Each structure stands twice: as structure tokens, then as C-alpha cells.
Amino acid sequence: MRDDVGGVFQGDCVCDIVEFIDDLQDVVEDVSCPTNCLNPVLGDVFNQQPRANTRPFILFTEDGKPFKAFFKSLDTECDHDGDNHHNHNHHGINTDFEACKSPFFRVESVNDCCAVLRVLEPQDDYCDIMACPQDNLRVTNSCITVDLRCFCAIQCLDDIYLRGV
């Protein structure tokens, strides 16, 4: 919950922040008037790019490590036996079992500190993603349900536009 003094969060701060991000993303759907006073401050329209619709973030566990979740790359194909035909995506990044983990998420919904998060696929080195997430994160069909009270910190990245959400 937000305090009136300085926008400080009290209580379940990670939960409150993720709920806030979810609300921001929900309002962005009306892009017919980008200067509408009711549009939240979630990105802007630059160089004819679509308006940002995602505030990607990283959650940190109690021991200070980034929380990661498995994802299935959209580039990975399976044969009828369930074996992967390709172990590398089109960027040359290994997509085997251990490599298919990501610390980058997009909130899909929140209810009482229980959140559905979409795992975002890194397309480059983590340092490059932090510098320019628009070019280096991609949507997946992998979601995870988490209890936001289990995390002690959250770090947001620059707002981005993700196709398919």
C-alpha cells in the first residue's frame, strides 16, 4: 500500500509494486490518443514504434539472488517423440534445459499477492538486456504463478513494447 509521504510503500512492497505495474499495463490498451490524461506513464511513442505495453522486471529472493523460471523458447520445435530438433535459437543461444531459465518477467495478473508472471526470453547477454531491453527481450508462452510475499526486492527495466501480449 502506498503512503501519502513520498510514495513510500509499506507492508508487502513487492506485491504492491507488481500490482501497480499490472494496473499500468492494463490501462495502456487505448493508444488512439497518446496524450490522453488518463494514460499512465508507461513508455512513449518513439520513431513510430508502438506504445510500450510492458514494464519488465526482475524479482530477488531473500538471499539476494535473481529469481529465475524455466521457459519454452518459441523457436524450439519438437518432433512426435518430444525431442528437440534444435538446441539453439536463431540468435545462437543454447536452449537446452539449463539454458532455458530467465530472470525477466511481465506481470499478467495479481490477486492478493498471488501473481501470474509471463517469463520473458533473453535474446542477448544480461548486461545488454539491462541497457536496452526493447531489443533484447521476447515474449514466451510460459507463465508461472508466484506468491509475491516470497521476494524481498524488485528491479524494473525500461518500459518496452512486446508483440503478442
Describe this structure in words.
It is built from three helices and seven strands. By secondary structure, the protein is of the alpha+beta class. The chain has a three-stranded antiparallel β-sheet. The longest helix has 15 residues, at 13-27. The chain starts with 12 loop residues before the first helix and ends in a 9-residue tail after the last strand. The model is unreliable at 1-6 and 79-86 (pLDDT under 50).
List keywords for this structure.
15% helix; 3 helices; 165 residues; three-stranded antiparallel sheet; alpha+beta; two-stranded antiparallel sheet; disordered N terminus
> Number of helical runs?
3
What average pLDDT do the residues reach?
Answer: 78
Beta-strand content estimate: 15-25%
Query: How many beta-strand runs?
Result: 7
Structural category = alpha+beta
Residue ranges: pLDDT <50 for 5 or more in a row? Answer: 1-6, 79-86
Q: Portion of residues in helices?
A: 10-25%
Largest sheet: number of strands, sense, barrel closure: 3 strands, antiparallel
Numbering strands along the chain, what is their spatial order in the largest sheet?
4-5-6
Query: Over all CA atoms, what is the radius of gyration?
Result: 17 Å
Note the run of SSEs as H and E: HEEEEEHHEE
